[in-house]
Amino acid sequence: MEPMTWTGALGPYLNPAIQIAALALAVSALANILVALFSANERVQYSEHGAVLQSNATLRFTRMAMGLSLAALVAIVLGYILGGILMPAGEKGIVGSIASRFTPVWIALAVTFVVSIAFKKRLGLYGHLFDNVIGMVGFGLVMFWVFTAIFADAIVPFDPVQDVISGMKNKAPGTPLPNPAEGQFTHYLLGGDALARDVFSRMVMGSRVVLTIAPAATLFAFMVGITLGVPAGYMGGKFDTVLSFIANLVLAFPVILLFFLLVTPEIITMGVPTYMAAVLFLFPIIFLVILWNSRFHTRTGLRNLLVALTVLIGGWLYLGLAWDLDPFGLVSIPGGVLIVFVSVVFVNSPTVFRIVRGLTLDISTRDYVAAAQTRGEGPWYIMLWEILPNARGPLLVDFCLRIGYTTILLGTLGFFGLGLPPESPDWGTSINGGRGLLQFFPFPPLVPAVAIMSLVLGLNLLADGLREESLRD
Predict the structure, then answer these.
(1) Structure confidence by residue, pLDDT tens digits, 354-407
(2) Which of 37, 268, 272, 388 is the most exposed place for a label (fewest CB within 10 A)?
(3) What gap in Å lies between CA 448 and CA 426, rounded to an integer?
(4) Which positions, given as ranges, span the membrane (predicted)?
(5) Count of helix runs (H) and strand runs (E) in the chain
(6) Predicted confidence (pLDDT) per residue in 259-291, tens digit
(7) Whether the Cβ atoms of residue 423 and residue 206 lie closer than 8 Å to each other
(8) Distances (CA, A) of 408 to 211, 313, 347, 403, 452
(9) pTM for the full model?
(10) Cα(207)–Cα(199) distance, rounded to whole angstroms?
């Protein structure tokens, strides 16, 4: 069986086209920079209606050339994807085969964009995101990895941990299996790693590990930061002073040293990660109970129902996640994952606290807060239903950015072998496993590194789009 080429039967047609489009984009971008540096960007034109700023004609031309070449590049990439999906199996090539494996992701992305754009006027800030090109690109990158994590079982051709195939150690992308079994996928699309496992399958399944831990840990950190930051900023006094001191103390502690301490056998034996989880995992329950009580204190029946459901469901999840004592045996976190999760929450919470506290100090001086005080509203109602909703824009932006920081942090922890088991397909562990032979076999560490880069880039672009739209809102 022959090795796969990168572009298969589409190569003779699309490879020259993508090279020309990339060259045109580079030349037009360089020309745009030179024109912007050495000529006036705008000039004033006077008419009977007054002075009007008019852009430089050459600059407009270079920008149009950049737009056209970028559109051509995107169209050619779409050609690779569609060709890979539609062409026969033996003619797809590596790019086409990978695109074909991602078919559920492309369908989910298309449905998401079509529905979102069709109803964007009814979707508030999320709908406004589709009026922003940067935000749409970031959203597309993020949702690509989200759908990849969701459909990972249908995408991967091999088990990322258990399928160790003899003769496939450190093989190049597109290498065929020596003796594929009946119905087995015949190639390692992105090569094999140092243990003869499929790099493509580990990259895809690694997205599930990362996108399970990073958003959840960031959400818990926000629960802690909001629950403590809003009252600290609104009430002030000794409460604010003590919490701010503790936050600064945690931020001053070296992060990597903290992780090394938490994974040492002595600390684990003492149960320190479990005790930390027991404290941190209480905050979502506390936050929701205070939220329902402050909002529905005059409707006791509804309040009592919501509080009871929060305590029951939250208590069940709390017992399973923090103490591994779920009576039904449905909820638990493996020890290594718990250490990483708690560490990330503990490190991010002080930063979220300081951001929320600063926003509360600013918003609490607004007129609508004074109006709520005049109406006789309680302090928790004002904090959670007047101040917090008006801080949603900056908090949403920081939430997206913080997921990106957490993704990088998880990659760093995996790279150092902290917390997660060594066979885990998470991207940091995969980079660590392939770094020793990077000069000779670059794909095992390079593929997960590109995955981290693309996800973090998407989150940063999404945060930029949300920031711009929240300022307009």
Answers:
(1) 999 999 999 999 999 999 999 988 899 999 999 999 998 899 999 999 999 999
(2) 37
(3) 8
(4) 20-40, 61-82, 94-117, 129-152, 209-230, 242-263, 275-293, 305-323, 329-347, 399-420, 440-463
(5) 20, 4
(6) 778 777 788 888 888 999 999 999 999 999 999
(7) no
(8) 12, 32, 13, 9, 7
(9) 0.89
(10) 13
CA end-to-end span of the chain, whole Å?
58
Strands 50-55, 187-188: pairing kind: unpaired
Structure tokens at 425: 């397909």
The residues near 44 (Cβ < 8 Å, ≥ 6 apart) are: 51, 52, 53, 54
Closest CA to 108 of 154, 156, 152, 151: 151
- In this structure, are residues 467 and 397 in contact, taking their beta carbons and an 8 Å threshold? yes
Tokens found for residue 380: 């928790």
Q: Which residue has the tokens 């369908």?
A: 107
The 3-class SS string of 402-451 reads HHHHHHHHHHHHHHCCCCCCCCCCCHHHHHHHHHHHCCCCCHHHHHHHHH
**For residue 464, what are the contacts with CB-CB under 8 A and spacing of at least 6?**
134, 135, 138
State which fold the 200-472 domain adopts. MetI-like fold (1.10.3720)
Residue owning tokens 């976190």: 333
Strand partners, 46: 51
* CA nearest to 426, candidates 408, 404, 443, 401: 408
The pLDDT confidence band at residue 434, using thresholds 50, 70 and 90, is confident
Residue 44: pLDDT above 60?
A: no
Q: What share of the chain is helix, strand, coil (3-state, %, to 5)?
A: 75, 5, 20
β-pairing verdict for 50-55 and 175-176: unpaired
